[in-house]
Design a protein that fits this description.
Blueprint lengths: L2 E6 L6 H10 L5 E7 L10 H11 L6 E6 L3 H7 L4 E6 L2 H18 L2 E6 L9 H9 L17
Parallel strand pairs: 1-2, 1-4, 2-3, 4-5
Length: 152
Amino acid sequence: MKRAIFTGSFDPFTIGHASIVMRALPLFDEIIIGIGVNESKTCMFSIDKRLQAISSLYADQPRIKVEAYNDLTVDFAKRKNADFIVKGLRCLKDFEYERDQADINRSLTGIETVMLYTEPQFAAISSSMVRELAHFGKSIDEYLPAKTTITL
């Protein structure tokens, strides 16, 4: 069984994230969406809200699981017996950061990182941009998957 993890803070989980998950699904038998918990980071949505919202999106997809974790991504991957880490790349800056992480993760555990380029129509969408819009009272619905149940 080929198992991959797709990780991030997902605060919130955007249509760009959902696109990466669905494009990665044919490559693996199972994908675990890992919501990283970083106690030093201030999040807009609680971990429970993010878990519930993302889980509800994939309730009808038995090959997609959603879990939270609060250790290194590579340790989470090992604990879940993942063969791969999936990352989405929007720009050159993302590539440079993720390449360095992939090199470290591979040297620590042998786990490979698969990088998928974001579809052009989603390249400008980031969780931080969506949070900023929400903070100033703008609608964020168009940036979230259609079945998203997360509310401010």
